[in-house]
Each structure stands twice: as C-alpha cells, then as structure tokens.
Design brief:
By secondary structure, this protein is mainly α. The protein folds into two domains: 209 residues, Rossmann fold; 92 residues, Tyrosyl-Transfer RNA Synthetase (Orthogonal Bundle). The chain has 13 helices and five strands. It has a three-stranded parallel β-sheet. A two-stranded parallel sheet has the order 4-5. The model has no long low-confidence stretch (mean pLDDT 95). It binds tryptophan.
Length: 337
C-alpha cells in the first residue's frame, strides 16, 4: 500500500450566513489543523450550493465572498492554507465525471442526505443533488486528501468517498487514491438552538433568535444570549446534573467551547449560579470572542476586489496541486491527452 502524505481537505457551502455551530464545529477546527502545521486545503463549494434549489446569482456571489471573509476573519491564512472556491478549479468537475462512472446507483440510493433533501418529491430533485456525493468524493480525492474534518451528517459521504477510491483502485488495478479518514466533530462542539436545546443550531431555522450568526454585532450577540431559553433551576453543581437539561447544557457547552475549557471546568466556576449571572458572563465571553470576527468580516466585505484576489490565488495553487492528479487519472482511465 502506498503511503500518502497527511493532507486535510474540507469544504463549506456558500448558502446563507455562517452561525456559531459552523464556527465551533468546523471553521475553528480548520484553523487548529492549519496551525498544527498540517497541509490544509479549505474550499468554498459553490458547485454544491446550486444542487438543492435555485440560487439567485447575486446571492450566490455574495454568499461566496461572505464565506471567504469568514474563513479569513476566523484565522485561516492564505499563506498557510489553500483557500478557494470550487468552481474556479475545473478539475473538480472533471474528476467528478469519472467518479459518476465508478459509483453505483445502489450506493447513491442509500445516501440519507439525498433522501432528506429530496423529501417525498425525489422526481423533482435535480440530477446534481443525486450526484452530489460523487462531486464531494472528487473534491477530496483530487488532492489525495487523507483527513476530512466534517460533521456527523457527512460521515456517510466520506465512507462513499472511500468506496469510490477502493473501486477505482480495484477496477484499474492501481493503488492511486488513498483511503480518506473522516474526522468527526465531537459532541462538545455540537451547538444547539438557543430557543430549543434539543434541536441543532441551524442557518435554516426561521427564528434568527435561535442562532448567533458570525455577522452579528456585539449588541445582537449579547441580546440573543440574554434571551436564550433556559429552565428555572440554577446551574447544577456537577456536569451530570446537566443530563436532562438541554438548554442549560447547551449554554455550558457554548461557554466551554468559546473559553477552550471543559464543561466540568465551567461547572467548577459557575455551578450553583442563577442564569441571571451566568448569562451575562457568557454574553461577555461570546462578545469578546465573536464580535472581532464580525467586525473583521464587515471590513473585508468592504473590499470585494481583495477577497476575489485571495480566492483566485488560492484557486491557482489548488489547480497546480490537482493538475498532476487529474492527468494521472486520465492516463489510468485511458483518456488520450
Ligand atoms: N457536503 C459538505 C456539507 O454540506 C460540504 C462539502 C462538499 C465537503 N465537498 C466537501 C466537506 C469535501 C468536506 C470535504 O457539509
């Protein structure tokens, strides 16, 4: 078995605003991996963004630049990581076509995300939504990425990526694509809705008060935390006491993740406190950590030319990495070039 150099790849779709859950669960981990000295490639998957429903072109452009500004404001550094949008590197689509011919209908039919997104009306879903996981496999394998930080909901797609790699290697008698490992976000970084502690914080929740957007300013962040749903009890004296209290647990977990300490540490400091004193402490911490991000995003969004320049330079670097891999893939498949 060939040994592949460790390389991290991940992507986020430019649809809507990024919220606290994406920051703690994804982007913050992207930054940590970048600063651990790993080779890191972070993509804005704009081609995936048009699979589910029609995207207004102006909105898509705005969301792409806003996600780029979030990447930068959160600490991704174009000198350390390759940052770009997918559609600027045509090799993603080229490899996706080959993978469309490797993946089997039976495999695609088992994808739970397609079933969830297509709903009852699968006949009306786009072909792109169905092929989505093959494009995702191409994103990853185009760089021979070995590690993919993703949420639990993407685990099945990374498993499919491994199946595609294995079948390609087997069918063509090569040892060309690596077996990629998913790195799944831990429960501690799973951020729940501020209105319902049993539901994931989501950019698609109709209530804006249910989430903290990375674009929210200091006042908005503080107000949303003060208004977050809680129960009438004070915080428990032990972490175990959070078990049946989803809202309390969520606020403690958010505190822990932002302060980079454990939930037990938070309880050691605040156990027994009323929400009337814990919430202001959490609001201060959140404003301290998050307001600089929204301020920096707003500054960056004031200079779209600069964002576009960062993306196109990132795309050039990505294309240079992808080029030998797509060329070898074409040779393996038998495409004359
Ligand atoms: N499907 C991922 C999501 O919705 C986004 C994505 C596309 C991705 N290509 C990827 C994630 C490659 C990791 C690696 O969250």
């Amino acid at each position: 078995m060939t040994s592949f150099t460790p390389r991290v790849f991940s992507g986020i779709q430019p649809t809507n605003h990024l919220q606290l859950g994406n920051y703690l669960g994804a982007v913050k981990r992207f930054v940590a991996m970048q600063n651990d000295g790993m080779e890191t490639i972070y993509c804005i998957v704009d081609q995936h963004a048009i699979t589910a429903s029609f995207q207004n072109p102006a909105d898509l452009r705005h969301a792409t630049r806003e996600l780029a500004s979030a990447y930068l404001a959160c600490g991704l550094d174009p000198a350390k990581s390759v940052l770009f949008n997918q559609s600027q590197v045509p090799a993603h689509s080229q490899l996706a076509w080959v993978f469309n011919c490797v993946a089997r209908m039976g495999w695609m039919n088992r994808m739970t995300q397609f079933k969830d997104k297509a709903g009852k009306n699968a006949e009306k879903a786009s072909l792109g939504l169905y092929a989505y996981p093959a494009l995702m496999a191409a994103d990853i394998l185009l760089y021979h990425a070995t590690h993919v930080p993703v949420g639990e909901d993407q685990k099945q797609h990374v498993e499919l990526t491994r199946d595609i790699a294995a079948k390609f290697n087997h069918d063509y008698g090569v040892d060309f694509f690596p077996e990629t490992q998913p790195i799944i976000e831990g429960a501690a970084t799973r951020v729940m809705s501020l209105r319902d502690g049993t539901k994931k914080m989501s950019k698609s929740d109709p209530s804006d008060a249910s989430r903290i957007n990375l674009t929210d300013d200091a006042d908005t962040i503080a107000k949303k935390i003060r208004k977050a749903k809680t129960d009438p009890e004070p915080l428990p004296e032990t972490v175990g006491g959070l078990a049946d209290r989803p809202e309390a647990r969520n606020l403690v977990n958010i505190y822990a993740a932002l302060a980079e300490i454990t939930a037990a540490d938070v309880i050691a400091q605040h156990g027994g406190s009323q929400f009337g004193s814990f919430k202001p402490a959490l609001a201060d911490l959140a404003v301290d950590k998050l307001a600089p991000i929204s301020t920096e995003m707003a500054r960056l969004m004031g200079d779209v030319t600069e964002i576009d320049r960062v993306l196109s330079q990132g795309a050039e670097r990505a294309a240079a990495m992808a080029e030998p891999i797509i060329a070898q893939t074409y040779d393996i498949v038998g495409f004359v070039r």
